[in-house]
Amino acid sequence: MVLQSSLKNCFQLFCVLRTPKAGFKGTSNGGLILQSVSNDIYQNLAVEDWIHDHMNLENQHVLFLWRNSPAVVIGRHQNPWQECNLKLMRQKSIKLARRRSGGGTVYHDLGNINLTFFTTRKKYERMENLKLVLKALKALRPQLDVHITDRYDILLDRHYKISGTAAKLGRTTAYHHCTLLCNADKFVLSSVLKSPYKGLKSNATPSVPSSVKNLFEEDPTLTCEMLLEAIATEYAMRHQIDHHITLINPADETVLPGINNKTKELQTWEWVYGKTPKFSISTYFNMVYKDSVLDVKVDMDVKHGRIEVCNIDVPEQWLPPALCNELVKNLTGSKFCPNEITTLASTLLRTCPQDDDLHNKWNLLCENMGMLM
Amino acid sequence: VCVHHFRSCSSIQFIKSKYVCLFDKSAFKFSRQQRLFRTSSVSCGQIVQFKLSDIGEGITEVTVKEWYIKEGDSVSQFDSICEVQSDKASVTITSRYDGIIRKLHYNLDEIAYVGKPLVDIEIDASKGVAPEEDVVETPAMSHEEHTHQEIKGHKTLATPAVRRLAMENNIKLSEVVGTGKDNRILKEDILNYLAKQTGAILPPSPKAEIIPPLPKSETVSAATKDKARKIPVPVSRPIAFSGKDKTEAITGFHKAMVKTMSAALKIPHFGYCDEIDLTQLVQLREALKPLAQTRGVKLSFMPFFIKAASLGLLQYPILNASLDESCQNITYKASHNIGVAMDTEQGLIVPNVKNVQVCSVFEIASELKRLQSLGSAGQLGTNDLTGGTFTLSNVGTIGGTYTKPVILPPEVAIGALGKIQVLPRFNGKGEVFKAQIMNVSWSADHRIIDGATMARFSNLWKSYLENPASMLLDLK
């Protein structure tokens, strides 16, 4: 059977997957470098999942290189309302993703490169990986003042964070991934990573804010491609393999069977928002209606991204109590999501007494509630 | 020879690969007999303390972030037990045993220590404990589960999880070819075996053509493929279906819809259907599409349907009215806020175009574009979603001809449009021509709207659309 050269790469991937003992040890000796052709955050995270779940890494290491179009990525156990400005993200169509590894929140765009180091669980060693990255950077630009902190960050000029790290350990495999800021949009980064939501109380992992800088600012001749090349070269040397980057398409089911299901799962509301650890909101807002200003106090408990307990304190007589109760009753169990409350509230109006004044008040209250989400 | 390994609770170590056989053969027999005489429902399986294994990098403590199981749940080997976090690393802890969870040693957000017990698992005494390499060597006759396996004298290597899969599907392990180490049977082998039985197609694997021949002397791909293609006569063994019913609470928006639809049920619906010849409108739209495009709007049929409806409502305002709760008063609404049903990820959303009576067809088209983009982004506001007085539903974009739409309170009428089909019709000269036919199904509140009104409104609407030029006469 003659193999077409284009299949050869997929073939390598497969033989590692399915046959732990097969006689291919000679071919995949030590390491594999993969690069994604996609810029979709969900697809790329799905590839990480796939490699983690399906590849046998006993005899080899894998390096996965990827970049994404604008997205905010929160850690496995984080609270997106606490970490980023969801309203701004919706306006700018910046995606929100939750990764499976721990750690804090990061902003990705095409000026940021992501590196994932896959090993068996026993060979999990983050410092070594970061040292490899450092070595690659120094080889590229010896004058760069970069060093690794004990929090596994890489700092430029002793002060600016250019790389953050996170890791995921499973039963037999582990991966350590990190970012590297080459030429990302710092303005968007700082505005989306600032949460406007007040009164949140949560045990979710908080992010540690840091000043960031792009490598491009230090040396305008640096590009993402150069960085990827340098790191791939260093990795190839370290594991004594061909400096050959295999391109993979995260939508290709034949090479990565089951990948599309993984991608879909990462996009579900239940994963992105529903996995938020339990939290509570205690806040208030002012509403202007006709000639008066009203204070509204809101207390809510949110579990699995859904409102478990809800308490809205509206000045007496402004809205009939029956209507208030109706709103609270319907909010309970509902997703903590502005679209959900808007559609829910609008639909409830259909079965309420038909009074323009009442409808206006109701809409005003519900709009303000939506702003909290 | 029975080789069966037991461990006592206090001396379990997961890192080391050797373990101690604490019971001799006679003790094993004894406990087996004990098991046979067990009558109470109290568990007498062995409780094993599953300790948190080494995370690596010298980490000694982690925070428990999520439990995947609760006390009383049964787990299988390799099932996920919990998620712990340590210093930016998220770790999935999986079970080493099959059994029932008896105790969780930590609550959420508590700190757990490496080497200390994480959960207590009650192991089924008959199954024993999996050693470090996760392989159980099974003696020929000692287990009930092997009575129908008939190993025939050789040991079949397989993990308990694989055995369970085989048992669920009534597969004899002796008939499955193992492709793992030492001919161990892997989960893929069971799946392959199943696929051959049912002729099912597994995801294609290019390497199937390259792999060295399986021990059973199936030489190359050709042979394997042929075997897979022959769909065998259905065998008597049933394939176990492990699907379970799933119950979910109805919440949020869906709960509100249930309330709306229940209220709608109280309205006596009168239905009226008709067929519209859109041949002329199709031509008109084709002609106008480029002009609309230059203004940045994609012109569909809906703006025409909506405007024609508004013109009809001017003549039959009772269709744009509302009946109060006590059915004592009818309110004739001045504004024609025509709702357009949209199918979004969330479900059926009905934003409305405000004041169609003073909008041009183009303005309606622009407004539809705005509503549609907000709708697909999940960003429609309360103002867009409330205040509707009449609704049109274009279910034809999905398919169908006639339907029975449900009126959305507090409205009193709704129209559903089927798909546009090319059908043969007779013209004035008795010749057959190609007509663009669309079906419309109206529902109206029969308490205040009678059949004749509905029919006349429909005819008027139909006449505007069948002869679009006539709309010009009545446009305001």
From TrEMBL, chain A:
Taxonomy, superkingdom: Eukaryota
Reaction(s) catalysed by this chain's protein: (R)-lipoyl-5'-AMP + L-lysyl-[lipoyl-carrier protein] = N(6)-[(R)-lipoyl]-L-lysyl-[lipoyl-carrier protein] + AMP + 2 H(+); N(6)-[(R)-lipoyl]-L-lysyl-[glycine-cleavage complex H protein] + L-lysyl-[lipoyl-carrier protein] = L-lysyl-[glycine-cleavage complex H protein] + N(6)-[(R)-lipoyl]-L-lysyl-[lipoyl-carrier protein]
SUPFAM superfamilies in UniProt: Class II aaRS and biotin synthetases
Keyword match Mitochondrion: yes
Keyword vocabulary terms for this entry: Acyltransferase, Mitochondrion, Transferase, Transit peptide
Entry annotated with the keyword Mitochondrion: yes
E.C. code: 2.3.1.200
InterPro entries found in the cross-reference section: aa-tRNA-synth_II/BPL/LPL, BPL_LPL_catalytic, LipoylTrfase_LipoateP_Ligase
Main localization category: mitochondrion
GO MF annotations, alphabetized: lipoyltransferase activity
GO biological process entries: protein lipoylation
Compartment(s) of residence: Mitochondrion
A single cellular component GO annotation: mitochondrion
Family: Belongs to the LplA family.
PANTHER family registered for this protein in UniProt: LIPOATE-PROTEIN LIGASE, LIPOYLTRANSFERASE 1, MITOCHONDRIAL
Name under which the protein is recorded: Lipoyl amidotransferase LIPT1, mitochondrial
Organism of provenance: Casuarius casuarius (Southern cassowary)
Automatic annotation (TrEMBL), chain B:
Record domain Peripheral subunit-binding (PSBD): where: 157-194
Alphabetical keyword list: Acetylation, Acyltransferase, Lipoyl, Mitochondrion, Phosphoprotein, Transferase, Transit peptide
EC number annotated for this UniProt entry: 2.3.1.-
InterPro entries found in the cross-reference section: 2-oxoA_DH_lipoyl-BS, 2-oxoacid_DH_actylTfrase, 2-oxoacid_DH_E2_comp, Biotin_lipoyl, CAT-like_dom_sf, E3-bd_dom_sf, PSBD, Single_hybrid_motif
Source species, domain of life: Eukaryota
EC primary class: transferase
All copies of domain Lipoyl-binding, residue ranges: 47-122
Main location: mitochondrion
Matching Gene3D superfamilies: 2.40.50.100, Chloramphenicol acetyltransferase-like domain, E3-binding domain
GO cellular component entries: cytosol; mitochondrial matrix
Cofactor: (R)-lipoate
Cell location: Mitochondrion matrix
Chain's role: The branched-chain alpha-keto dehydrogenase complex catalyzes the overall conversion of alpha-keto acids to acyl-CoA and CO(2). It contains multiple copies of three enzymatic components: branched-chain alpha-keto acid decarboxylase (E1), lipoamide acyltransferase (E2) and lipoamide dehydrogenase (E3). Within this complex, the catalytic function of this enzyme is to accept, and to transfer to coenzyme A, acyl groups that are generated by the branched-chain alpha-keto acid decarboxylase component.
Stated name of the protein: Dihydrolipoamide acetyltransferase component of pyruvate dehydrogenase complex
Organism per entry: Casuarius casuarius
Gene: Dbt
